[in-house]
Amino acid sequence: MRRVFGAFGVGASLALFGAGPAAAQQVCRVSDPTGTPLNVRTAPNSVVIGTLPNGARVRLVQVVSGPDRKRWAFVAHPDDGAAIGWIFRDYVICP
Predict the structure, then answer these.
(1) For the whole model, what pTM was predicted?
(2) What is the CATH number of domain 12-93?
(3) Residue range 37-72, pLDDT digits in tens
């Protein structure tokens, strides 16, 4: 599994799960309680394309309820805004 911190072709999935944008696109930190890297996906509850380590900073772009009824967040790199992918929202801490 590769770690991701770059642009991927996942922008189209933003339109598929149309909910409002995250509040002011907050910068948050990955905090997976299992202690393992957090899976990054092409869409909510979809194919895993990589992982993010605990403590990684991400910018929340959009938060939706996925087909599994869980909250998912589309995230981007906090500095340059490059798309990263979808992560499980409950495993991110925001100020």
Answers:
(1) 0.76
(2) 2.30.30.170
(3) 999 999 998 999 999 999 999 999 999 997 778 999
Beta bridge partners of 72: 64, 88
Angle (CA) 6-91-31 rounded to 5° is 80
Q: How far is CA 52 from CA 15, 18, 82, in A?
A: 23, 24, 14
pLDDT of residue 25: 83
- How far is 18 from 13, CA to CA, in rounded Å? 9
Domain ranges in the chain are: 12-93
Q: How confident is the model at residue 4 (pLDDT cuts 50, 70, 90)?
A: low
Q: How far is CA 80 from CA 6, 58, 75, in A?
A: 10, 11, 12
